[in-house]
Amino acid sequence: MLPLHLIDAFTPAPFAGNPAGVCLLEGPQPDDWLQAVAREMNQAETAFLQRRDDGFGLRWFTPAAEVDLCGHATLASAHFLWEEGHLAREEAARFHTRSGLLTATRAAEWISLDFPATPPGPCTPPPRLLEALGGLGPETPVLRSRFDYFVVLEEPAALLALRPDVRLLREVETRGVIVTTPSDRPAADFLSRFFAPGILVEEDPVTGSAHCALAPYWTARLGRNPLIGYQASARGGTVRVELAGDRVLLGGQAVTTLKGFLAQRD
Question: Which of the ends of the chain has fewer CB neighbours closer than 10 A, N or C?
Answer without folding.
Answer: C
